[in-house]
Amino acid sequence: MKKKLWMIFGPVIVAIAALLILLWAPINFKTVTPQKVRQAATSLDIRVLKGESVKNAAEKENYIPIIGSSELSRMDPFHPSSMAQKYHWKNKPFLQGNPGTASLTQAMNVGGMSNLKGNKAVFIISPQWFSKSGVQADAFKYFLSPLQLTGFILKSNTGDKAMNKYVAGRILDLGVSKGPIEDDALERISEGKQITSFQRFYIETFVRSSLQSQDNLFGSLSMNDHEKMIDDAASKLPDSYNYKDLNKLATKMAKHNSRDNDMQIGDSFYKRQLRKRIRTYKNTHRHVKYTSSPEYNDFQALLYMFARNKVEVMFVIQPINPHWVKYTGMPKSSITNFDKKIKYQLRTQGFNNIVDLSNVKNSNYIAEDTIHMGWRGWLMLDHHLKYYYKDKKANPENTQYKMDDYFLSNEWAQTKNVTK
């Protein structure tokens, strides 16, 4: 009878034991190959965003991250990944973002990228993040990485104390709960206290080590594969780079792909999202403002993460389709006031590399839909990136940041008019 039971349950027991050993043993599994990194660079896979192993492997190769949100999935021929492939940029983009990611999610993401230290990054800012309520709790919970959270907790006795207090408190305010020990550790950090020796031992030994093993084992398995999409997009570009010719081509492609509406919105998006309810959006944004938002504090936490690791950052202010702005009745002041405020927060702390696409002379076909770059918008950004991507190491002169805790205050979050 015992032999029969073992024949039935033995393999299951052995399999469970083997899995536990894989998850808990302090073994560094080498599963992230250069081929996996190449695939991950355009995959926009949530496991890559929430993990650490693939991104840190990419930092050892010729990749510079572009960090943002849903605009990264608009992979037309002028998307940075297409352009980098076609024109053989020395360093290639590594895309990090999904619909719903915003400043606080990306602050945790950047905090977990240990190999980003002393290198370059690109960060795309979306004005619509800076709504009155800021990031939605459900969206933040969905993208919050337990691995990155444990890293934040264990590093909380270093770096800027005010930033650590803010991030821990913000995570708790958004309703995140990962277990009594982790929650209590966050409470202590939010109060300006250090975590206990037991909390450090437990999180480091039992929680983080298991999460790292899972990330090493499964973080690059069966990822989204957009390489063919990039190949197809790049094949539509001319062999030699000439900005004027590419601008004409971008305009031609944009016109061809936005014939079903007079707002220069891509036909596929218009048919899928807007055609049946376009009239419901008429003048609906007359009272929209992007100057009073907790997102400014979350954005400051992100800046601290960059500054802590001496990362040189190109910030890109994403455009909003001007035809959409007019149709929905959004005041132009909503964009210009946001523009002033976010630039003030950046420049006063030493983040001076800003590509502002929210106010350009010729804005035709700058966006692919209502609020995301496309066609000529990507091309305008590419013109800056092609030079920026020649060297991935940060210039120390461009990382002399002077961080100011005032930008973590509610007073700053609610400031409506910045005149400087």
Detailed description of the structure:
- The protein is mainly α.
- The protein has one domain.
- It has 19 helices and 5 strands.
- Strand 1, helix 5 and strand 2 form a beta-alpha-beta unit.
- The longest helix is centred in the first third of the chain and has 23 residues.
- It is globular, with a radius of gyration of 23 Å.
- Belongs to the DltD family.
In short:
By secondary structure, the protein is mostly helical. The protein contains 19 helices and five strands. β1 (63-67), α5 (80-86) and β2 (92-96) form a beta-alpha-beta unit.
* Radius of gyration, in angstroms, nearest whole number: 23 Å
Share in helix: 40-55%
Low-pLDDT runs of 5+ residues are 9-24
Amino- and carboxy-terminal Cα gap: 84 Å
| Major sheet size, sense and barrel closure | 5 strands, parallel
Structural class: mainly alpha
Shape: globular
Please list the strands of the largest sheet in the order they lie side by side.
Answer: 2-1-3-4-5
Question: What is the typical, i.e. mean, pLDDT?
Answer: 92
Family: Belongs to the DltD family.
Pathway: Cell wall biogenesis; lipoteichoic acid biosynthesis
Pfam families: DltD
Keywords: Cell membrane, Membrane
List keywords for this structure.
DltD, LTA_DltD, 420 residues, single chain, five-stranded parallel sheet, 49% helix, mainly alpha, 5 strands, membrane
Question: What's the topology here?
Answer:
Layout: H1 2-24, H2 34-43, H3 46-50, H4 53-58, E1 63-67, H5 80-86, E2 92-96, H6 103-111, E3 120-125, H7 137-143, H8 146-154, H9 161-173, H10 180-190, H11 197-218, H12 227-234, H13 243-256, H14 267-274, H15 295-308, E4 312-317, H16 322-328, H17 332-347, E5 354-356, H18 376-388, H19 410-414
Parallel strand pairs: 1-2, 1-3, 3-4, 4-5
